[in-house]
Amino acid sequence: MKRSIRFRLNGRPTTLETDGDRTLLWVLRSDLEATGTKYGCGVGLCGSCTVVVDGEAVRSCQTPLSAVDGKEVVTIEGLAADDGRLHPLQQAFLDHGGYQCGYCTPGMIMNAYALLRSQPHPTRQQILDAMDGNLCRCSAYQRIVTAIEGVAAWGDAGDGRRSLRDPGPESGQAPSQTSGEASAGVVGGSTGGAR
Fold first, then answer.
1. Structural domain containing residue 102
2. CA neighbor of 122 nearest in space, from 40, 26, 45, 194
3. Number of structural domains the chain divides into
4. Three-class SS of residue 168?
5. What pLDDT does residue 160 have?
6. What's the whole-model pTM score?
7. Pairwise CA distance, residues 130 & 114, whole Å
8. Residues 6+ apart with CB under 8 A from 107
9. Measuring CA to CA, which of 24, 38, 158, 177 is 20 to 30 A from 62?
């Protein structure tokens, strides 16, 4: 049954007249053209469809649209600054090669964004635990974790947007580590998430 559903999408008021049982993933992709959110497994296990709802990472393939009525939804499209400058997490993923094919990257970044909003300076173990449910078939886990660690070390996530959007000290960019500064250790595997 169609009903009016109102929420904020990437800071903009959004109203839809549609069936509230539709999944958020397909409404984002089909109705709102927010195609950065990816369809992966369809059962909430891979994390490719992760978006942030009221500060929490959620699997949009398992979230009915009615669940976001009156809430704030942030997708990968909502992270970059209005002037086109990448969000520090996006920049860190580029700087550290935290992607290969890029399919899982939006979900990885959104999951990390939610983590850093709630816990600005997580330990490596906290990052691993938070990212455990996001899968990367290309096994870029070490670089993903290194990218998140770099942003976490750089600055206070605060409200998520203000501090993480801040361009940084003098450079105007989030800090970048060289490959020699990357954390040691094996992270990842074919099915183990960020572990």
1. 88-181
2. 194
3. 2
4. coil
5. 41
6. 0.80
7. 9
8. 37, 38, 40, 46, 47, 48, 49, 50, 134
9. 158
